[in-house]
Structure prediction request, 299 residues.
Amino acid sequence: MRKVTDISEAKMKHTQISSSKTLRLVLSVVAAGSLSAIATASAQIVNLNNNNSSATVDLGSQAGMYNWLINGQNQLAQQWFWYRVGSDPTGQHSIDTIGGLSYTSTANTLQATYTAASFSLTLSYNLIGGGVGDWTSDISENISIKNLSAAPLDFHFFQYSDFALAGTSGGETATIFQDGEFFSYAKVEKAANQLSETIDQPLADRAEADLTFATRNRLNQGSPYDLNNNLTAGPDATQDATWALQWDFTIGEAGSESDTYTVIKDKKLSVAPTPEPAVGSLILLGASAIFLRRNRQKA
Prediction:
Protein backbone atom coordinates (compact mmCIF):
# COMPACT_ATOMS: atom_id res chain seq x y z
CA MET A 1 0.00 0.00 0.00
CA ARG A 2 1.47 3.34 -1.01
CA LYS A 3 2.02 6.12 1.55
CA VAL A 4 0.84 9.61 0.73
CA THR A 5 4.44 10.79 0.61
CA ASP A 6 5.35 8.03 -1.86
CA ILE A 7 2.85 8.77 -4.64
CA SER A 8 4.46 7.96 -8.00
CA GLU A 9 5.66 10.64 -10.41
CA ALA A 10 2.87 9.70 -12.81
CA LYS A 11 0.31 10.55 -10.16
CA MET A 12 2.13 13.58 -8.76
CA LYS A 13 2.08 15.43 -12.08
CA HIS A 14 -1.67 15.76 -11.67
CA THR A 15 -1.60 17.25 -8.18
CA GLN A 16 -1.22 20.82 -9.41
CA ILE A 17 -4.32 22.79 -8.41
CA SER A 18 -5.10 26.01 -10.24
CA SER A 19 -4.84 29.06 -7.99
CA SER A 20 -8.27 30.28 -9.03
CA LYS A 21 -9.98 27.05 -8.01
CA THR A 22 -8.07 26.93 -4.73
CA LEU A 23 -9.06 30.52 -3.98
CA ARG A 24 -12.69 29.79 -4.78
CA LEU A 25 -12.65 26.80 -2.43
CA VAL A 26 -11.00 28.74 0.39
CA LEU A 27 -13.42 31.64 0.04
CA SER A 28 -16.35 29.20 0.13
CA VAL A 29 -15.12 27.66 3.38
CA VAL A 30 -14.49 31.07 4.96
CA ALA A 31 -17.94 32.25 3.93
CA ALA A 32 -19.52 29.12 5.34
CA GLY A 33 -17.79 29.60 8.67
CA SER A 34 -18.65 33.28 8.94
CA LEU A 35 -22.25 33.21 7.76
CA SER A 36 -23.57 30.02 9.37
CA ALA A 37 -23.46 28.57 12.82
CA ILE A 38 -22.23 25.01 13.14
CA ALA A 39 -25.17 22.63 12.92
CA THR A 40 -25.31 19.35 14.84
CA ALA A 41 -29.08 18.95 15.14
CA SER A 42 -31.28 16.36 13.49
CA ALA A 43 -31.88 18.53 10.41
CA GLN A 44 -29.40 16.83 8.08
CA ILE A 45 -30.87 17.75 4.68
CA VAL A 46 -29.20 20.80 3.13
CA ASN A 47 -30.39 22.70 0.06
CA LEU A 48 -27.96 24.63 -2.15
CA ASN A 49 -29.00 27.27 -4.70
CA ASN A 50 -27.17 29.40 -7.26
CA ASN A 51 -28.52 31.07 -10.42
CA ASN A 52 -30.28 28.42 -12.55
CA SER A 53 -29.34 25.51 -10.26
CA SER A 54 -30.20 23.86 -6.97
CA ALA A 55 -28.99 20.71 -5.21
CA THR A 56 -30.10 18.73 -2.15
CA VAL A 57 -27.81 16.71 0.12
CA ASP A 58 -28.93 14.28 2.83
CA LEU A 59 -25.98 14.17 5.22
CA GLY A 60 -27.66 11.55 7.41
CA SER A 61 -28.11 8.68 4.94
CA GLN A 62 -26.45 7.15 1.91
CA ALA A 63 -28.98 8.91 -0.28
CA GLY A 64 -26.31 11.63 -0.19
CA MET A 65 -26.80 14.22 -2.91
CA TYR A 66 -30.03 13.10 -4.59
CA ASN A 67 -31.17 16.23 -6.44
CA TRP A 68 -29.30 18.48 -8.87
CA LEU A 69 -31.76 20.66 -10.74
CA ILE A 70 -31.15 22.95 -13.70
CA ASN A 71 -34.07 25.27 -14.45
CA GLY A 72 -36.25 23.03 -12.29
CA GLN A 73 -35.36 19.76 -14.06
CA ASN A 74 -33.60 17.13 -11.92
CA GLN A 75 -30.50 15.41 -13.36
CA LEU A 76 -29.35 13.25 -10.44
CA ALA A 77 -30.56 10.08 -8.71
CA GLN A 78 -27.73 9.56 -6.19
CA GLN A 79 -24.13 10.62 -5.61
CA TRP A 80 -22.37 9.66 -2.37
CA PHE A 81 -19.23 8.31 -0.73
CA TRP A 82 -18.12 5.10 0.97
CA TYR A 83 -14.96 4.21 2.90
CA ARG A 84 -13.11 1.20 4.27
CA VAL A 85 -10.35 1.19 6.88
CA GLY A 86 -7.72 -1.41 5.99
CA SER A 87 -9.18 -4.84 5.25
CA ASP A 88 -12.15 -4.42 7.61
CA PRO A 89 -14.05 -7.75 7.27
CA THR A 90 -17.37 -5.87 7.41
CA GLY A 91 -16.37 -4.11 4.19
CA GLN A 92 -17.24 -0.60 3.07
CA HIS A 93 -19.58 1.83 4.83
CA SER A 94 -21.22 5.01 3.59
CA ILE A 95 -19.67 8.07 5.21
CA ASP A 96 -22.91 9.03 6.97
CA THR A 97 -22.32 6.03 9.29
CA ILE A 98 -19.11 7.59 10.68
CA GLY A 99 -21.07 9.77 13.11
CA GLY A 100 -19.99 12.94 14.88
CA LEU A 101 -21.55 15.12 12.17
CA SER A 102 -21.22 18.90 12.17
CA TYR A 103 -21.69 21.20 9.19
CA THR A 104 -21.88 24.77 7.97
CA SER A 105 -23.63 26.07 4.86
CA THR A 106 -24.36 29.18 2.86
CA ALA A 107 -26.72 29.59 -0.10
CA ASN A 108 -24.46 27.63 -2.45
CA THR A 109 -21.76 26.01 -0.26
CA LEU A 110 -21.68 23.19 2.25
CA GLN A 111 -18.91 21.90 4.50
CA ALA A 112 -19.68 18.80 6.56
CA THR A 113 -17.34 16.94 8.93
CA TYR A 114 -17.81 13.40 10.28
CA THR A 115 -15.58 12.43 13.20
CA ALA A 116 -14.67 8.92 14.35
CA ALA A 117 -12.15 7.83 17.01
CA SER A 118 -9.28 7.36 14.54
CA PHE A 119 -10.07 9.82 11.73
CA SER A 120 -12.25 12.70 10.57
CA LEU A 121 -13.65 13.23 7.08
CA THR A 122 -14.61 16.67 5.75
CA LEU A 123 -16.75 17.07 2.63
CA SER A 124 -17.09 20.46 0.90
CA TYR A 125 -19.43 21.39 -1.97
CA ASN A 126 -19.57 24.57 -4.03
CA LEU A 127 -22.47 24.95 -6.50
CA ILE A 128 -22.10 27.42 -9.39
CA GLY A 129 -25.14 27.58 -11.64
CA GLY A 130 -25.38 29.06 -15.12
CA GLY A 131 -27.27 32.20 -16.08
CA VAL A 132 -31.00 32.55 -16.59
CA GLY A 133 -32.09 30.35 -19.50
CA ASP A 134 -28.73 28.57 -19.55
CA TRP A 135 -28.58 24.78 -19.16
CA THR A 136 -25.16 24.36 -17.56
CA SER A 137 -24.09 23.94 -13.94
CA ASP A 138 -20.96 23.10 -11.94
CA ILE A 139 -20.27 21.52 -8.55
CA SER A 140 -16.76 21.39 -7.12
CA GLU A 141 -16.01 18.89 -4.34
CA ASN A 142 -13.21 18.71 -1.80
CA ILE A 143 -12.86 15.68 0.50
CA SER A 144 -10.21 15.64 3.25
CA ILE A 145 -9.50 12.65 5.50
CA LYS A 146 -7.41 13.40 8.61
CA ASN A 147 -5.74 10.72 10.72
CA LEU A 148 -6.41 11.31 14.42
CA SER A 149 -4.51 8.26 15.65
CA ALA A 150 -0.87 7.74 16.63
CA ALA A 151 -0.27 5.15 13.89
CA PRO A 152 -0.45 5.27 10.06
CA LEU A 153 -3.99 4.65 8.74
CA ASP A 154 -4.66 2.35 5.77
CA PHE A 155 -7.70 3.90 4.06
CA HIS A 156 -9.89 3.24 0.99
CA PHE A 157 -12.29 5.90 -0.28
CA PHE A 158 -15.08 5.42 -2.86
CA GLN A 159 -17.43 7.68 -4.81
CA TYR A 160 -20.60 6.32 -6.47
CA SER A 161 -22.59 8.39 -9.01
CA ASP A 162 -25.97 7.70 -10.62
CA PHE A 163 -27.26 10.47 -12.90
CA ALA A 164 -30.61 10.58 -14.71
CA LEU A 165 -29.82 13.14 -17.41
CA ALA A 166 -32.65 15.23 -18.86
CA GLY A 167 -34.84 14.12 -15.96
CA THR A 168 -35.37 10.55 -17.16
CA SER A 169 -33.82 7.14 -16.48
CA GLY A 170 -32.14 4.97 -19.10
CA GLY A 171 -30.47 5.63 -22.42
CA GLU A 172 -27.13 6.77 -20.97
CA THR A 173 -23.55 5.73 -21.71
CA ALA A 174 -20.86 6.03 -19.03
CA THR A 175 -17.16 6.13 -19.91
CA ILE A 176 -14.20 6.35 -17.54
CA PHE A 177 -10.85 7.48 -18.91
CA GLN A 178 -7.49 6.07 -17.85
CA ASP A 179 -4.21 7.98 -17.57
CA GLY A 180 -1.39 5.47 -17.23
CA GLU A 181 -2.26 3.24 -14.31
CA PHE A 182 -4.69 5.78 -12.81
CA PHE A 183 -8.14 7.18 -13.67
CA SER A 184 -8.60 10.86 -14.43
CA TYR A 185 -12.00 11.56 -15.95
CA ALA A 186 -15.55 10.23 -16.20
CA LYS A 187 -18.27 11.14 -18.68
CA VAL A 188 -21.97 10.31 -18.99
CA GLU A 189 -23.85 11.05 -22.22
CA LYS A 190 -27.47 10.78 -23.32
CA ALA A 191 -28.24 12.28 -26.73
CA ALA A 192 -27.20 15.96 -26.46
CA ASN A 193 -26.95 15.83 -22.65
CA GLN A 194 -23.56 15.48 -20.97
CA LEU A 195 -22.03 15.30 -17.53
CA SER A 196 -18.26 15.24 -17.07
CA GLU A 197 -16.21 14.83 -13.90
CA THR A 198 -12.55 15.82 -13.77
CA ILE A 199 -10.31 14.57 -10.97
CA ASP A 200 -7.90 17.33 -10.04
CA GLN A 201 -5.97 15.72 -7.18
CA PRO A 202 -5.02 12.92 -6.95
CA LEU A 203 -6.07 10.54 -9.73
CA ALA A 204 -8.14 7.53 -8.70
CA ASP A 205 -6.55 4.11 -8.23
CA ARG A 206 -9.52 2.07 -9.43
CA ALA A 207 -12.81 2.69 -11.26
CA GLU A 208 -16.02 0.94 -12.26
CA ALA A 209 -18.86 1.63 -14.72
CA ASP A 210 -22.10 -0.39 -14.54
CA LEU A 211 -25.88 -0.05 -14.55
CA THR A 212 -28.18 1.21 -11.79
CA PHE A 213 -27.50 -0.17 -8.27
CA ALA A 214 -25.00 -2.88 -9.36
CA THR A 215 -21.88 -1.11 -8.03
CA ARG A 216 -23.74 0.34 -5.05
CA ASN A 217 -24.88 -3.16 -4.06
CA ARG A 218 -21.27 -4.39 -4.18
CA LEU A 219 -20.15 -1.53 -1.94
CA ASN A 220 -22.91 -2.49 0.51
CA GLN A 221 -22.26 -6.24 0.37
CA GLY A 222 -20.79 -6.43 3.91
CA SER A 223 -17.31 -7.61 2.89
CA PRO A 224 -14.26 -5.88 1.37
CA TYR A 225 -14.65 -4.94 -2.29
CA ASP A 226 -12.36 -3.22 -4.80
CA LEU A 227 -13.79 -1.70 -7.98
CA ASN A 228 -13.36 -3.94 -11.02
CA ASN A 229 -11.90 -1.41 -13.54
CA ASN A 230 -14.69 -1.97 -16.07
CA LEU A 231 -14.63 1.41 -17.86
CA THR A 232 -17.85 1.51 -19.95
CA ALA A 233 -21.55 0.85 -19.33
CA GLY A 234 -24.82 1.35 -21.21
CA PRO A 235 -26.86 2.33 -22.92
CA ASP A 236 -29.80 0.49 -21.42
CA ALA A 237 -33.40 1.46 -22.18
CA THR A 238 -34.52 1.62 -18.54
CA GLN A 239 -31.42 1.73 -16.33
CA ASP A 240 -28.98 4.57 -15.73
CA ALA A 241 -25.30 4.13 -16.54
CA THR A 242 -23.37 4.67 -13.28
CA TRP A 243 -19.73 5.12 -12.41
CA ALA A 244 -17.58 4.81 -9.30
CA LEU A 245 -14.03 5.78 -8.32
CA GLN A 246 -11.70 4.40 -5.65
CA TRP A 247 -8.65 5.89 -3.92
CA ASP A 248 -6.25 3.70 -1.87
CA PHE A 249 -3.74 5.36 0.43
CA THR A 250 -1.97 5.33 3.78
CA ILE A 251 -2.28 8.47 5.91
CA GLY A 252 0.58 9.38 8.25
CA GLU A 253 0.13 9.46 12.01
CA ALA A 254 -1.56 12.45 13.63
CA GLY A 255 0.67 15.52 13.77
CA SER A 256 2.89 14.41 10.87
CA GLU A 257 3.21 16.29 7.58
CA SER A 258 1.21 13.55 5.84
CA ASP A 259 -1.66 13.18 8.35
CA THR A 260 -4.27 14.47 5.86
CA TYR A 261 -5.26 13.14 2.44
CA THR A 262 -7.32 15.38 0.13
CA VAL A 263 -9.33 14.55 -3.01
CA ILE A 264 -10.47 17.42 -5.25
CA LYS A 265 -12.92 16.94 -8.10
CA ASP A 266 -15.21 19.00 -10.33
CA LYS A 267 -18.51 18.08 -12.04
CA LYS A 268 -19.77 20.00 -15.08
CA LEU A 269 -23.32 19.42 -16.31
CA SER A 270 -24.66 20.45 -19.71
CA VAL A 271 -28.25 19.62 -20.59
CA ALA A 272 -30.09 20.17 -23.85
CA PRO A 273 -33.42 21.86 -22.99
CA THR A 274 -36.60 20.02 -23.93
CA PRO A 275 -39.37 22.32 -25.24
CA GLU A 276 -42.56 22.39 -23.21
CA PRO A 277 -45.43 20.50 -24.92
CA ALA A 278 -47.35 23.72 -25.40
CA VAL A 279 -44.37 25.34 -27.10
CA GLY A 280 -43.89 22.33 -29.33
CA SER A 281 -47.57 22.44 -30.31
CA LEU A 282 -47.34 26.13 -31.19
CA ILE A 283 -44.29 25.46 -33.37
CA LEU A 284 -46.14 22.65 -35.15
CA LEU A 285 -49.27 24.80 -35.66
CA GLY A 286 -47.16 27.65 -37.00
CA ALA A 287 -45.41 25.38 -39.47
CA SER A 288 -48.76 23.96 -40.62
CA ALA A 289 -50.19 27.44 -41.17
CA ILE A 290 -47.20 28.48 -43.29
CA PHE A 291 -47.52 25.29 -45.35
CA LEU A 292 -51.25 25.85 -45.99
CA ARG A 293 -50.75 29.49 -46.93
CA ARG A 294 -48.05 28.60 -49.44
CA ASN A 295 -50.29 25.94 -51.01
CA ARG A 296 -53.13 28.46 -51.41
CA GLN A 297 -50.81 30.99 -53.01
CA LYS A 298 -49.64 28.37 -55.52
CA ALA A 299 -53.27 27.49 -56.36
